[in-house]
Amino acid sequence: xxxxxxxxxxxxxxxxxxxxxxxxxxxxxxxxxxxxxxxxxxxxxxxxxxxxxxxxxxxxxxxxxxxxxxxxxxxxxxxxxxxxxxxxxxxxxxxxxxxxxxxxxxxxxxxxxxxxxxxxxxxxxxxxxxxxxxxxxxxxxxxxxxxxxxxxxxxxxxxxxxxxxxxxxxxxxxxxxxxxxxxxxxxxxxxxxxxxxxxxxxxxxxxxxxxxxxxxxxxxxxxxxxxxxxxxxxxxxxxxxxxxxxxxxxxxxxxxxxxxxxxxxxxxxxxxxxxxxxxxxxxxxxxxxxxxxxxxxxxxxxxxxxxxxxxxxxxxxxxxxxxxxxxxxxxxxxxxxxxxxxxxxxxxxxxxxxxxxxxxxxxxxxxxxxxxxxxxxxxxxxxxxxxxxxxxxxxxxxxxxxxxxxxxxxxxxxxxxxxxxxxxxxxxxxxxxxxxxxxxxxxxxxxxxxxxxxxxxxxxxxxxxxxxxxxxxxxxxxxxxxxxxxxxxxxxxxxxxxxxxxxxxxxxxxxxxxxxxxxxxxxxxxxxxxxxx
Length: 533
Ligand SMILES: *Cc1c(COP(=O)(O)O)cnc(C)c1O
Known about the structure:
Layout: H1 3-14, H2 18-36, H3 64-76, H4 96-108, H5 115-118, H6 120-137, E1 144-148, H7 151-166, H8 170-173, E2 180-185, H9 191-198, E3 206-209, H10 219-231, E4 235-242, H11 254-267, E5 274-278, H12 305-315, E6 323-327, E7 339-343, H13 383-419, E8 424-426, E9 435-440, H14 447-456, H15 461-481, E10 491-493, E11 507-511, H16 519-532
Parallel strand pairs: 2-3, 2-4, 4-5, 5-6
Antiparallel strand pairs: 1-7, 6-7, 8-9, 9-11, 10-11
């Protein structure tokens, strides 16, 4: 080996000069700032044409600026969602406390698989998981959990425990021809089907329960479905309760579901299914659990206080869930990936456990400290614990209450404005969340009457088709004509999760996620609708 050449590039890349690193970091920050002056969207068009044709690797060792240059066009060409005009989805700028946590994590690059590989970073995970568990379960006896790479995977953990509960030994023996079912609502995230498929249940064995007009699972329909499944001999492994649906922010009655599934299981002499709450989006409502709406210390708008009281009531249901998914990278405004899977009772994790004999290179693992004994993943990033603890304690409970309270306030503001327009119909008026779904029909139509007729089953299918086509056409019309510098970006959903008489209902969608979005953005949005129609 030519040691002189070797030592030179090794020093550049493995003993990096802090000045070189911070200098490049500063350049990235400066370019972020510069982009904030531009309208949101595509800053640099994509070039997929040759992305595969030219995957060249440089020949000679370079320096950190070469590393910068290798990614910069893609960095510049990516919208950091820093504009308050972004209302499309549960997506926004990550908070700066999370950034500090993430940087710390990247510098040490811990691997959370075992304590030996990550020392105090593993301890931080225990702390972060417990802090989140206390927030949602309240006085829970023995919670435990881990960070996963996303809500989908956290839901997979919950469902997997359920499979083991109803088909003991399945981890080893497989399902052995037993038909195993899972249940969720029509408003559940599509990843429930991913989970059913990947766990080998088959997506056909995931059963969707209709929702009421608040996009909450209908308990009567759940009871009927469970009776039907048990009667035909299915094992029901899990029920996923959605706590905040992705589009409409529908919140299932988790406590009610608990009662229904326990009673049904008892009636049929079966072990109760795992009750997993998918709170990927809705968990952040729990910051308001102790908000005193009577004293209202943060002067949240009066029409929003009943929403908070409703959220507080619904959040109590989480205490009886067996496990829960929390996406901090969503409503926590944290960095990806930081999803937490948390069990109410640590003992439930034994259903996932491996023995150390099956993991030769972790043979010294200790289950108190070494998550690798039960995690799906082997190597696991520390981003979750670092971003969560930095965000929770940087922003503080009161900061979080203001952040969530403000988002609810803006959603109410838009709902109230739209409710005044005859040709609009808010579709999720009573869901306690930060998203608004609505119909816009041509002027002259009464959207409220039309929707009421649809719910009553009085609209012929061709009328439904015509109206929903109008909703879509007007959405497209707005898209074509909007001014990217001042008009909010909305999105469109083809299925709000409530399906009266089995009809899929589309809607325009706005999510109040960016902390700097304000009433002026909403005023302009509503003005634009009035002008356009
Ligand atoms: C986003 C979302 C998921 C999936 O989470 P990822 O972190 O994107 O994998 C699951 N459930 C709900 C309700 C969601 O909104």
